[in-house]
Amino acid sequence: MEQCKTCQGGCCRRYNIHLWGSDIIKICNALKVDISFFTYAYHIEEDKIENLKGKDPLFIFTDSGKEEYFILILKSNESKYYPDTLKCIFLQEWSADALGSEELSGIIGRCGIYGIRPVTCRAWPAGYEEETQNIVIRDPHLILEKKHKRTSDSPALDICKNTLTHQDYINFEAQYIEDSIINHHEKQFFLKVAEKWNKNPDISDNFYKFLVKEYNNRIEYIKGEVVYGTV
């Protein structure tokens, strides 16, 4: 969208980005990096586990010698231009003034893996509504103002300073629908992967090998579940 040209990447600084298995494998293969380079296992507090089970892919890793649950998200690192704030490890940032830009100003943020970015990022700000099975495109500005109140006054966390309208999205609606449906199904599959892993949990070092095996055999999960209609 046009507004994104001047964005500092507020979404990539404010939110934890969930990773599905397909995201992890795709990034590892494309960048030739280890899973630990960009994936962070976020520890889930015990009092929140039951509420998240079945909704988010939770994995048990036995590195500590006890049963603990984690979700997998993109790692963050410190921002060069916004002190005391974090950003997605793949978010690149520049000073427009230092670049001598006549079109842009301030700090500019751009995704460094845009072509292979996680499906959660591709679908944003659209979401899949489980109850209605509809795709809903939300206004990031209103999400910030009404739901996800800012905990810091840092401009790094600003998201879409102005309210967006249907016209802002109209040229991208088909892609939002496609990406949101893919995101929903990737999450559902990853929930099944988590369920299988947790039946016989292991240390995190063995997770990627397990993950690749499961995705290589992915077709096994949908046998008997897909029904093709006839004309």
Number of strands: 9
Secondary-structure content class:
alpha+beta
| Separation, N- and C-terminal Cα atoms | 39 Å
- The averaged pLDDT comes out at 85
- Beta-strand level of the residues, as a percent range? 15-25%
- The number of distinct structural domains comes to 1
> Can you tell me the residue ranges where pLDDT is under 50 for at least 5 consecutive residues?
227-231
Q: N-to-C SSE series? A: HHHEHEEEEEHEHEEHHHHH
Query: Helix coverage percent of residues?
Result: 25-40%
Query: What is the tally of helical segments?
Result: 11
Strand line-up across the major sheet:
1-3-2
How does the overall form come out from the CA principal axes?
Answer: globular
For the biggest sheet, the summary is: 3 strands, antiparallel
Radius of gyration, CA atoms, in whole angstroms:
19 Å
Task: Describe the 3D structure.
By secondary structure, this protein is of the alpha+beta class. It has one domain. Helix content is 39%, strand content 17%. The chain contains 11 helices and 9 strands. The strands form 4 sheets. The protein has a 3-stranded antiparallel sheet with strand order 1-3-2. A two-stranded antiparallel ribbon has the order 4-5. Strands 6-7 form a two-stranded antiparallel ribbon. A hairpin with a 4-residue loop joins strand 8 and strand 9. The longest helix is centred in the last third of the chain and has 27 residues. The radius of gyration is 19 Å and the shape is globular. The C terminus is likely disordered.
